[in-house]
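Thread title: Can someone regenerate the structure for this chain?

I was given the following input by a collaborator and told the matching structure tokens would be attached. They weren't. Posting the sequence so someone can regenerate them.
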Amino acid sequence: MRYADFWLVVIFLGLGTFTIRASVIYLSRFIVMTGRTKQVLSLIPAAVFPAFLSHWLFFHQGSNQLLLGKERLVVLICATVICYYSKSIFITVVSGLAVLYLFANNIFFEALSKLDGFFCSCICQQNIL
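Best answer:
Regenerated them for you:
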């Protein structure tokens, strides 16, 4: 495909998208919707979001062997718990990204193994075992 053809396709796709969206906005003045219809249509973004996330979440093969390559699932669970308690989108996103970084780069498990070694040495020195 030539360079000029590419931009011609991009322009026509943009015009098509704009026309479809503008027509819906323009025609919405003439269509009367009931309260039930508005309620159902308001739920569509909430239904589309999991459809985008499920592929990203379940079919990704991660690098963490301890979590069987499913560190994103653990991050989702952590972010859900944080969101429930903090009620803040910003805190949820930042903490989710931080946990994903820690799991993807094995920083969390390296720190945990160092802590485990520390606790084992403390227990062995006190002759608890």
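The CA atoms of residues 39 and 119 lie 55 Å apart.
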